[in-house]
Amino acid sequence: MSVSRPGDPRQVGPYRIVGRLGAGGMGQVLLGRSPSGRTVAVKVIHPAMAEDDDFRARFRREITAARAVGGVYTAPVVDADPDASPPWLATTFLRGMSLQDAVAAHGPLPPPAVRALGAALAEALRSVHGAGIVHRDLKPSNVMLTPEGPRVIDFGIARPSEATTLTRTGATLGTPAYMSPEQASGQPAGPPSDVFSLGAVLTYAATGVGPFGQGAVHELVYRVIHLPPYLDGVPDPGLRALIAACMEKDPARRPTPERLLEHLSAEPAPAPQGTHWLPPPVAHDVARRGEATVPSGPGRRTVLALAAGGALAAMAAGGASLLFFLRDDDPLRWTYRLPEDVYVRSRLVATGDTVLTFGSQGLAGQTFAIDAETGEERWRGRFTVDRGSSAALFEGRGFVYDQASGELLTAFDLATGRTLWTEQLKTSGLTPRPAAGTGVVCMTGFERTGEYGLYGYDAATGRPLWRYRSDELTQTRAVLAGTTCWFGTRRGFVYAVDVTTGNARWQKRTGAAVLTDPILAGDVLAVITADGSVRGLDPATGRERWRTELGDGAATDAREGAPATIAGGVVFVDGLNGFLYAVDAATGRLRWKKKAGTEADKRTLREVSRPAVSGGLAVVTDEDWITAFDLATGATRWERHVERGRSEPPLISGSLVYYGTGRGMHVFDLHTGRTRHYHEFSRVLGSVEHYTELDGTVYCVADRAVHALRFTE
């Protein structure tokens, strides 16, 4: 979503326009708000098309048909005026992320999630076809993953299937990589055409690429019409056969949505409601974006215009912080200056329309909530997070733990900063971080008697619910997904605890101390142990699926809590021997191990950061180098020398890679490594650090101030 542009309408029908969602061949899609506060997506038809009487007739019939579409998995039409100038229609505004963005950011979905998605799309098509509509442009960007479940969107090019005046121009519509052969060849496209597109969408969900690859439009059209789809990358044989049936060249041989639902329900799969059916990283991202609010006032350009070109400076509440508005063409959108003696403790958290900054003033905690759009202070709280820790967010609340301020677990209201409750828990020598979900907050710690364990608290009231005793804990933290919380111990046990009861679901002894947080990705729980092994466990049963010996001191010499992560279906382990290890999460096969930097650098023990993964690349930093490795082979795609920073992991947003150093923020092209931008701050004490990203804007800390940067891709 972006701010409104000059020339955008301020009002469409009863809806006040507060932002822009996108544009296409038929017009533009705007974000509107009704007089009662309801948020909708408003599609405004291009004036040139609106002048065509035949088009108005088609559009009027489309609205009538679209209003007849029901079902859980579609975005309903809520209002329209085909006779307005220009014509428009409004649909429910869905918060979340598209399937295209989710797979690009987190990699392919596991087979159970693809099956669940397939059932939702089949049910959506049943509703669409039942209203006499053919969608004609079902593709990954038109499937939204929302906190309530998947939804099919964009009926703006859908046409009632029985109307000849509506199929006359409809045959040219669609996206080549996902359209059916009959659509690509200009033939009439009925409901089976959407089934073909559904198969193509499921291929993308399961493999990360479309069934006909990439290329020029004419190349894709040829492949769609004449060549079989490439489905070898679909890991599940039954799912592969189902997709192949959907993508038969002959429309008559394709299954109906009803038949698809029968096949998909024959094997157990999670119901596609909410986000529990998605891998935890995707579910978290969808939930985070689902929390986002929409603007209610003028956009950034309006504010800056009121500031007479960017010279406005206003004192924030309390007088301790200074807020600057800068030129609209400057990547530095705003600066929020913290009080002189406040230090930021952990990475910034951008959630919804707020940037949370966790700091300390002496031993006292200080948290600042800053408006992500304007840089204005919203509230301050007298709590913070422990160094190296982070906040857990759940249902409008935040949960933080700080040893210095009395060993307190604190819950606060995200909207107001009001402290909701506190509970004391000892964690000396550990790395405390709360985990929240399913109405419960979990954290590892110990009582004054010295008994270690996992503690569960009621998220709403802070009331202690249960304690699960364990052996001695390491400097690792618990991980929560659904109703299960996993954690590891010094004696090598991995525990899975039901957070609704506090009882163990399973425990697994690995034989060596668990050195990292359990890492969950789909149907694999990975742990790294002190004997230099990476183990892949079944998160439901604890059964060991695979074990890989890294050797070379990768884990045996590593500190507790050594960096490790899963991204793109790969477990990455950063050993203190200077190697980055890439282990296939599904099989445990060591794909590659690499060092960054020059040949001289590679002969020394230089620790690499956790990688940022996107576009088939794993990007890491190694003191004064930033390197992009091929995700599949480990080959070095590019590397650049930079001045030293705080060795924070790089950050990827879209096609840009961000890395903060001792003087400024470097911005590189993800695919080539070419420097795209560099923003130097006037003075930096230490390094540019604690950076995070939200909707294309990067927020960072430099010189005891929080800055918002936005660069063009």
From TrEMBL:
Keyword terms: ATP-binding, Kinase, Nucleotide-binding, Serine/threonine-protein kinase, Transferase
Cross-referenced InterPro entries: Kinase-like_dom_sf, PQQ_b-propeller_rpt, PQQ_rpt_dom, Prot_kinase_dom, Protein_kinase_ATP_BS, Quinoprotein_ADH-like_sf, Ser/Thr_kinase_AS, WD40/YVTN_repeat-like_dom_sf
GO MF assignments: ATP binding; protein serine/threonine kinase activity
Name under which the protein is recorded: Serine/threonine protein kinase
Highest taxon of source: Bacteria
Species per Swiss-Prot/TrEMBL record: Actinomadura hallensis
Residues holding ATP: K43
Domain Protein kinase: 15-266
